[in-house]
Amino acid sequence: MNKEHFRASAAATVAVLAAAGLTACGSSSQTSSGQAEQPVSGGAFVKAISADPGHLVPMTGVSLAAREMVGYAYEALVYATPDGRFVPWLATKWEQSGKKITYTLHDGITCSDGKPFTAETAANNINYHADPKKATFYHGPQVNEGVTAEAEGNTLTITSETDDPFLLANTGTIEMVCQAGLDDPDSLKNATNGTGLYALSGSTPGSTYTYTKRSGYKWGPNGVTSETKGLPDSLEIRVITDETTAANLLLSGEINAAVVTGADRQRLDAAGLKTVGVRNPVGEMLFNERAERPTSDPLVRQALVTALDRKAIGDVVSDGSAMDSKSLVVKNPLLCVAGGPKWTLPATDPAKAASLLDEAGWKLGEGGKRYKDGEPLTIKFIYDAATATHAPAAELVQQTWNKLGVTTELSANDANAWSEQLFQTFDWDTGFVQIAPGGPVTVSTFFAGATPDKGGNNFMFVDNPEYEALVKQASTASPETTCDLWQQAEAKLIERTDVFPLADNELRTYLSGVRLEQPNFVMPTTIRMLG
User: Which residues form the signal peptide (predicted)?
Assistant: First the structure.
């Protein structure tokens, strides 16, 4: 989540579907004289992030910033490219048959602590995540207690108790930790121990994290080694919370990359800066369905969304670049998005919204406010304080609902407040709260999985039997039929207003003096400094 994207697994995907062309990476940049800039080795790649990641433990870090930082030092068996293909990484090849997949690992892989990374270490990673007691980032959406792994030589074999049409994606994209880190996860809070081209060499929480290039690296995707031309010597990740500051630093050349979503994009576009981007569900709305909240009633949820002018609010929340949502799956390579969606969002109709609230028992009373059993209909609407467009869009929502007789309270959240409200106090009703999964299995952990009080991700407390039945069918269906079932399941969430995808936009990372690939986050082996 943009701070709110809690526990959204980065890559529950399969190779059979291509991404929807949301990521662009030019092959070269131009100097002011029109000369193409060429890769130049050395120096530091500097990137801005908008929030501190907190601890860096890759098995349990859940915020957007934490997952981005994990990718700088830890690697997976396969690399999911921006165009949706899987290519070799730690594994040189793989074979899948039914409930089993076998990977052959590179020879000579080493960890940042100098120790070998073997197929046995990879198997230990899979088995670690499969243990429900570990409660890891990957447990549930990608692996569970029905998945086991074993090693022989440089061969890793993973077996699932049930049919899994996404077995390659689910196991191949897990970021691997070296054995010492598995043995002592706390040792990774402020240090790294992976197979990555870069390893953490210094950190000042809230300010800067520095990664240094390792020597002897030779197992990168597409033949990348530590000697590949254009690689920086180090990565410097700076916490810069103000977008205007980040934009100024991009234009001055002091930093090389930053996500910019607000009005500063106009300056960056005018300056001709290149971008890479991913689809962003910036206007997605979720609902707290706990029994004591008014949004537990489907009629109330339907009324609230039916009253909204999607175009007007969508233009504001997307900063004028709204895209219709095609799926709740937005991360590369957009598994089961093609051919969808199978749902239709309701047309704006304030009169119908009012009628639905009447039906739900919330009648207009004194001062034009709606009451039920003497209590006013009060909705607490939360949004991300760091997302520049969320506050003005939330104010439009507030104005709309106030006219409907709903007392609407706005609440801007920082990273700590998100965690507290969604997973501990549950003191919210709805808002711009987004998940950004790479596949429908991950979606299901939020809408059909266990609730936080039982160790799960379903912080909305959704109970949708029709959705759950389709999830059960889709989970073990054949690769040919699974996506149709998943899309039907997604439609059931929209029909019941468990989620309202008001508008998407493109989350752009602006680049200065560099080119790179960003399937979901910046891929460090693809960074090429330009000169």
Answer: 1-24
Joined tokens for residue 162: 């049930």
Domain end marker among 188, 212, 241: 188
CA 226 – CA 213 distance, rounded (Å):
7
Separation of CA 408 from chain center:
28
pLDDT at 36: 64
Q: Order of strands across the sheet with 91-97?
A: 91-97, 100-105, 155-160, 147-152
Helix (H) / strand (E) element for 304: namely helix 298-306
Are 245 and 57 in contact, with CB atoms under 8 Å apart?
Answer: no
Q: Check pLDDT > 50 for residue 161.
A: yes
Contact (Cβ atoms closer than 8 angstroms) between residue 359 and residue 387: no
Q: Determine the Cα–Cα distance for residues 454 and 526; give it in Å rounded to an integer.
A: 40
Tell me, yes or no, whether 159 and 234 share the same domain. Answer: no
CA distance 187 to 462: 36
pTM above 0.90, yes or no: no
Residue 227, both tokens = 């000697």
Cβ atoms of 173 and 15 closer than 8 Å: no
- Name the domain count of the chain: 3
CATH at 227 = 3.40.190.10
Residues 126 and 218 in one domain: no
